[in-house]
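Supplementary Methods S3. Input chains for the assembly prediction are listed below.
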Amino acid sequence: MSILTHILGWPLIAAIALAFIPRGNRPLIRAVALLATAASAVLAGIMFVKFGAAAMNEDGYRFVQQAAWAPSLGISYHVGVDGINVALVLMGAIVAFAAACVSWEIKEREKEFYILLMVMTGGILGAFASLDLFFFYFFHELALVPTFLMIALWGRGEQRTYATFQITLYLSIGALIALIGLVALYLQAGAGTFDIPALTRHLAENRLSEGSQAFIFPMLLFGFGILVSLWPFHSWAPLGYGSAPSATAMLHAGVLKKFGLYGLIRVAVPMMPDGARDWAWVIAALCLGNLVYCGWVAMRQKDFNWLIGYSSVAHMGFAFLGIATLGLVGITGAVLVMVAHGFLAAVAFGLNGYVYHHTGTLQLDQLGGLWRKLPFIGTAMLMAAFAGCGLPGFANFAGEMTVLFGAWNTFKTITVFACWGALIIGAVYMLRAVRSILHGPLSEKWKDLPDAPGYWRKLPYALLLGCLILFGCFPRLLTDKITPSVAAALQAASLIPAEPVPQNAPMRIPQRERVTNLHPGNSAGSDRLASAINKP
Amino acid sequence: MNLQLITLELLVGALGLLVLLADLFLPARNKAPLGYAAAAGLLVVLAWSFAGFGAGADYAFGGMYVLDPLALFFKRFFLVAAFLVLLISIEFSDRLSAGHGEYYSITLFALLGMLFAASANHFALLFVSLELITVSFYVLVGFQRTRLLSLEAGVKYLIIGALSTGFTVFGIALVFGTTGSMEFPAVMKAAGSLVENRMLQIGTLFVLVGLGFKIAAVPVQIWAPDVYQGAPTPTTAWLAIGSKAAGFVLLLRVLFSAMPDLTVHWANLLIWISAATILYGNLCAIPQRNIKRLLGYSSIAHAGYLLMGISALSAEGQSAVLYYLSGYLFTVLAAFAVICVVLRHVDGDDVSAFAGLSQRSPLLAAGMAFSMVSLAGIPPLAGFTGKFLLIKAVLAEGEANTGYYCLAFTAIAGVVMSIYYYFGVVRAIYTSENTADTGAIGISIPTRGLLLLCMVGILLIGVYPQPLLEAAQAAVAGLAR
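Predicted structure tokens for the full assembly:
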């Protein structure tokens, strides 16, 4: 059994186990949830470390497991990771553990809450680990529904009923459009299988007709786009996150939302390169809506939660821009942004959940001077804000820079505006929030605010920030894994020539032997590729 | 004549009569053993259905009656449904002032009609079985004679049912007039060259009106919400699953065994009916506050989803219909079982009556939540896999006819609307802000078992489709397309 099955299985088993624990036994309920997510996170870490040494199959996937499920439909349970999703699974597992840690603030109906949290975690990890289109979608929906229920039942704020219905309907529409697109893709491919590697291979040889690509690609683009809050389909996000309990917002904004981006990178672009080429400029244009417009809106927010919500929408613009380049550097950057933003969104929503729990408000004009009372939380918040501005040293910087470098060749004007969105607008709203929350006079009301007591309460924030710094200082940990996989996918789809010479890549291009491994059967071509890449 | 083929029908008929007889000898106070005995009898019949039948098609009564895999699939389906409905009826029986034995035996007679319907290979048998079902339901719907709503529902069902029967008979006469036969294979042979014949078209259309009434499809869906609301809860459950499935098996037989050429000719008509039914059911369900009425409208919407599979005119679509119905069986019966228990403890059958149910009884709450989430078509439950198969079947035909793409998008729109009202119910169950009464609700052991069985069924059909899918594919293998 693959380690991936353990990673996504433990939370689901915990969900079932929790159903049989008496509801009064609060410590046991929390312990089960924490243990299951911790097991997932540790296993995901082990998988990440062992990634390079693990055996790779001919499609470039490692830790693969495949089991027949519905052979007559061509559906199988198939999990595996390559460079693109290995970091996403790791990020998802760590965020899930942090989300379970911060859930101490939930005081009523805990049993149901933790069951939903575990189902959501299992679904998220399953969605990113799946190599079968059916399970890919299945696990995503499995994670999405608990999101809705958690907002409905443990949400906060007066508008939570409205928020629940808005996010439910909005995301359901997106998911269902994507479902139609995926089923249409399966039918048009005519390979009779939902298996992603098999479909990719089949479609690389038998390209879909331009006509089919022209209607399936936009369905996936907008279906997934709604799920990732692509402008102008973003309006569910700030209100939804503002009304969600912190654990839910962390998991959704941090991890689950990336499903749409991952779907574009894994399914839509490699399988329908012509459609992707036709629609690339649309993605690039819309991403400005995220980066500039939503950034602007974030500047005007009076509520910290809404500000974070809008900023998380804005950050998605980088990922879209990276994907729109359809190039090696851009898409590598997009994956980096996805991982970095996952940690960032999680720590941001976790921190504001802490503040909200103790103050009951997140209105910027009511808070102030909190750093004096909350040295740890305040420092963490400041670091998160810096990461959000794209300060070097945090993973976000690496991702955003890579995207901007990658995009320069393809979309010059848009890149200029994107730089503004990233560097100026982002800095303005983040620093403004820091000023009004952490600095200034301390209101009488907040005299007795407690800082996170003990290591347990500090752990989730420290863990997430640690990951941000780790991958910020050593982005090669990620890019060494991501780049070969992205290159293989793009080459299979003939989106990049077999000998790409990325001029502006900020990172070192993968070493010779790693690239050679990609095509063991075709060493002549890959040698040429490797020598071309490593040209000074 | 081969009496062995109709063993299941004979057994169920005998069981119905036995229940009626035994009713005379039981004390008036306690009729529950009678219900349990009937349910146990059905289990025996169900077991029998797995014992002595071959995989081929056998005919009886001069080709009037056919026992093929499709018939057998539906017979087992009806037996399982009737078994669960009887358990719900026992739970409900204390609210019937009299006639418990009659209630059980008439439920069994309706089942007898359904068993015959599954095997209909002749318009006469179609009509007789349809009438046996409908007349039994006239009685079952109006069974609570002292309750005004029940009587009103009975009258409505009677009037619209009689009207649709009239249509069916007239249609059968016209079909017989043009093709010279009532036997499906013979009709198929004759009708092949008569596709453009007006009289045959009108005749078939009239038969479809009659069947549309059973499944509550537009434009003969009007009765469903009123009758669902007014009828005693077990009757509503039996209507929602038994009567609807009987309509679908007859529809499959008529469209694909008797009139395959005309069906192909009418693909667009089927698409329109399906889309209109989906939209009508879902749009009207949105403002509903009465839970049974809401499920009435939702059952119209589900008839629309099921019609998608029929309108796809493919083996894939037909097997998807069977698959979806099987998931729907457990889903709907779980919902009505919960409603049946809860309504004893609260006044009125408003959605708000379910507020705080999660505190009063976690099992009931979980059963209702499972059912609603599955009806909304969300993984990992049965409704999702079923809808997935239906949509896949429809999209597969999209290349030939763009109407299918439009139908798929209509279905998606319907699903999104349905999420709104189903989640309204789930929300009510798990919030307890304005609950008057928070006392625990006790559940009898059989009902507990019934709920657990339904939940396991919903989950299993959702996550492990292979066995049921194979059974469904084998069942529709004999149908023309």
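Residues 309 and 318 of chain B are 6 Å apart (CA to CA). Chain B has two domains: 1-161+223-254, 266-481.
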